[in-house]
Amino acid sequence: MASRRRTLLKVIILGDSGVGKTSLMNQYVNKKFSPQYKATIGADFLTKEVQSDDRLFTLQIWDTAGQERFQSLGVAFYRGADCCVLVYDVNVQKSFDNLNNWREEFLIQASPSDPENFPFVVLGNKVDVDGGNSRVVSEKKARAWCASKGNIPYFETSAKDGINVEEAFEVIAKNALKNEEEEIYLPDTIDVGNTSQPRASGCDC
């Protein structure tokens, strides 16, 4: 009975509002896409059972609000993450420029034990828009940024058409699993309130 252990892997999706974070998550978990846009308030998550090397684990994917007024709500959800997915819209330069801010903010708030080697994956979403004629961020530029941050895996995706979504999340799951195996402890459940000691605002402890 003890031989079969189910592992919970926590994945956080970050990026500007409107880049398609919720749509990517829904396409991966439910194989559905909705053209209706509704901003995420706070954070929400979906789970998916995944098998790797005869081992069953649950991917818990957290979709966080991209709007600044809700970002403070996301801090507690960053803790205990096993992988962070950074998403931008290839048709919006600002969403790409903000990737660094999202990455830095995550590392500050999540406080991973080994920030230099914490697994990130970058998704350039909405490659389907206008047949690719509207894009302003080239694949070359995005890959160069990923290389400069320690060779972060990069995928160009379309949540609408399902392009590269499955492939991207396979890599996300593998990176999350690898990170989880390096952790010293394995909590049975994610308890947001108890994953770490509370820190005072501005405390660098």
Please count the beta strands (DSSP E, at least 2 residues each).
6
Instruction: Provide the residue-averaged pLDDT.
Output: 82
Question: What radius of gyration results from the CA coordinates?
Answer: 17 Å
Order the strands across the largest sheet as they lie in space: 2-3-1-4-5-6
Class inferred from helices and paired strands: alpha/beta
Features:
32% helix, 6 helices, 205 residues, globular, alpha/beta, 6-stranded mixed beta sheet, Rossmann fold
Describe the overall structure.
A 6-stranded mixed β-sheet has the order 2-3-1-4-5-6, with helices on both faces. Strand 2 (43-52) and strand 3 form a beta hairpin. It has a single domain, classed as P-loop containing nucleotide triphosphate hydrolases (Rossmann fold, 3-Layer(aba) Sandwich). It has 6 helices and 6 strands; from the N terminus they run E-H-E-E-H-E-H-H-E-H-E-H. It starts with 6 loop residues before the first strand and ends in a 23-residue tail after the last helix. By secondary structure, it is of the alpha/beta class.
Break the fold down into its secondary structure elements and pairings.
Blueprint (H helix, E strand, L loop, with lengths): L6 E8 L6 H10 L12 E10 L2 E10 L3 H11 L4 E7 L3 H5 L1 H12 L9 E6 L13 H10 L5 E3 L8 H18 L23
Parallel strand pairs: 1-3, 1-4, 4-5, 5-6
Antiparallel strand pairs: 2-3
